Amino acid sequence: MKENRKIILLIILALIFISLLLFIGVNEKNYSYAMSKRIPRILAIVMTGIAISTSSLIFQTITDNRILTPSILGLDSLYIFIQTSIVFLLGSSSKLIVNFNLNFLITILVMALFSTFLFKYLFKITGNNLMKLLLIGVIVGTLFESLSSFMQMIIDPNEFMHIQDKMYASFNVINKDILKVASIIIILSYIYIYKNIRKLDVISLGRNHAINLGINYDKLNTGLLIIVSLLVSVSTALVGPITFLGLLVANLAREYINTYKHTYLIITSCLLSIIFLVGGQFIVEKILNFGTPISVIINLVGGIYFIFLLVKENIK
């Protein structure tokens, strides 16, 4: 009951922030136009928040490490590499850049194939060793970053401006068709997570305990890692990379709700993520007049919290 009251408080806060972002500045004359622009933006924020928070929480449970996020696997770097490669090879006027739907589908497809290769084959080659897999992810991510930087340095400055827009998360322009595809992927991912939600509680005990309690640890881990990758791919392709948001909300959820049950942890982290994103977008729109991308605010707060976690662990 204590957890339920805390979750209800977060729901109320989330609804207040959403209402502020949705209705401030709206009157009878501009109601239809404002709603047609703001409702898709709110939906994009909610879906991004759900995808990032859920993927980060599950990833930390699998790796048994609270300072890791799925970005360590190199997915954010891969996203920038894909966008840079398209502009470098085909130009910014290519259909793969101009057509948002096509760009979204291509990006999701490449990132999903990369994730499947990483988890389906490299995971087996490394003897199902998660630490080796993470090390490979770091190396591959660094490779993508280096290749992207090289192409960005020799590309035409006008073309680079198109890549720069992709490097920062933004909710200012939302494509409704992309939202439909993203929502389908998120719903299918959540069906898989719901079926295994109680097994996540067991996995949090550690590999040996989980196997002794009858969990098919390696098979479930591979499935969950692919789901994590899909959710990260969707959120990154939808708005751009937000590195520290997952780290921030997953840890705050564990501190706030103080339980091992992932049913509560996932709901809490999703609500915190929505509150942070909606609140951040409100500051960007109403206070900063779109002068700063929301990812800058999130990464600043998340970076400070990351340093706090490191200092806290050293003190222990």
Automatic annotation (TrEMBL):
GO molecular function annotation: transmembrane transporter activity
Record's keyword annotation contains Coiled coil: no
Topology with respect to the bilayer: Multi-pass membrane protein
Superkingdom of origin: Bacteria
GO BP annotations, alphabetical order: siderophore-iron import into cell
GO terms under cellular component: plasma membrane
SUPFAM superfamilies per the UniProt record, alphabetical: ABC transporter involved in vitamin B12 uptake, BtuC
Protein name per the record: Iron ABC transporter permease
Upper lineage: Bacteria, Bacillati, Bacillota, Clostridia, Eubacteriales
